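Morning, I've got a small favour to ask if you have a moment. I've been staring at a protein lately and its backbone has me curious. You're getting the sequence in one-letter code plus the fold written as tokens. I've dropped the whole record in just underneath, so have a look:
=====
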Amino acid sequence: MGTSFSCGGGREHRPGREAVGHRVRAVRPETNHSRAPRKGPAAAAGPPPEVFRTASDLARLARGETVPGLTSPPSAGLLRGLSGAALLHLELYELTGERHLLDSARDILHLEAAHCVRMPGGSVQVKDGRRHLLYLDQGSGGFALVARAYLDHREDPLLSELLPGVRQGCVLEFVREPGLFTGRAGLTATAHALDTAPGDGPARTTPAPDVLASVRNLTWHLVQRGDRLLVPGAGLRRFSADLATGSAGLLLALHTLAAPPGTPGSPTGPRALLSVLTLG
């Protein structure tokens, strides 16, 4: 394996990726487990009108309508599915209180849930042709983060039933790549985020034993060169330092596990990880 480094390659734009890129930077203070409201002129003004137009277009797309310039993704996930669109609607609901936005988030998440299947071992993964995926980028991990954030506002038996299986899959022993969006680092951070989500009972504040085991298993992927630890990137073809596939993303995932519990009003569980992933 060569020692060249990748700073990330370009990918075509998909609705989920666009939705995450347009997510709202401010939230209203009232919601159950929402983040604290941002201060300053930008937060007071709220999102620009084009954000609401984007949300409307994505909701129409999820309903099967034709939207010029947009194509419904064939799979599910935070960046390569419509889970990012659901997150956009969820945050707009938290800002405005308009319940049709929460309804749209639910409908989109139910569409994403239709891509999920339960594997023989009990894990829940996104079926994509012959592949079954758990990842943040494309897979049940990214979907589960948004679904769990939705459940802070409204009960939903369909979504609740899927989450334990996703969490189980996130700590499977065999994972091909180490990275954040399509590898072990992201899955480990997702399992911990689901463990620390606010709920009916007490949430964990420290990583569970199987999450710590997954952290230790990251050493299987790393390659030592002198005093450096190198992270194999996408396809394990070269070493990477980027956020999506390399050392930057791996360190960010470990940070979410090591960070102490936040101050009252700060994001916890999936909202904390989503905030990091989307620069919220």
